User: Fold this.
Amino acid sequence: MLGHSGPVADWVFAIVDRLGAVGVGLLILLENLIPPIPSEVILPLAGFRARTGTLNVLAVWVAATAGSLLGALVLHGLGAWLGYERLHRLAGRRWFVLASQKDLERGRELFDRHGGKVVLLARCVPFLRSVVSIPAGIAGMPLVRFAVLTTIGSGVWNAAFIALGWVLGENWDSVQGWLGPVSYVVVGLVVVGLVILVVRRLRSRSVTV
Assistant:
């Protein structure tokens, strides 16, 4: 085990060494469902293992992309189960503070116009690459179109980070150092956006009272 690897990397190494490319796919599946599990650790580490000959790089990429797709389909299904009409009704109730009906209408209009671009590009943004599947399901994006866009975006993301791990070799973990701050910024912006939505919702409610 490399001396500079942390507990997350040790855990990823243990799974990958035991299950091989299948382990990479399972980890990426979990990463899509539980965003704090970072693909910027899993993929470069897998790329490094492929460089040493422990794994087949093509098998790693295929497994990682399949894991991304499966995780995204689960979240898309969750969004479809919630449904736009159900959320729209909930947004009309006084206790629902996350968004107004107008917010949902604007969001659906955005997805109707640019949903494909949103899904494709978000697959290459930390944190958003996981959660974008839910609004895609809520907006009713056709499953085949969603799957194709997710596979393309995820395939590019996975290939880039596996390649970085291959090129960097034993310094594969420096990738997390580069992307860690970016992830924090994205999560922070999402949290700020949610807070703004809630505050605006509460203010509009107080005005109508």
The chain has a mean pLDDT of 77. The chain has one domain: 7-208.
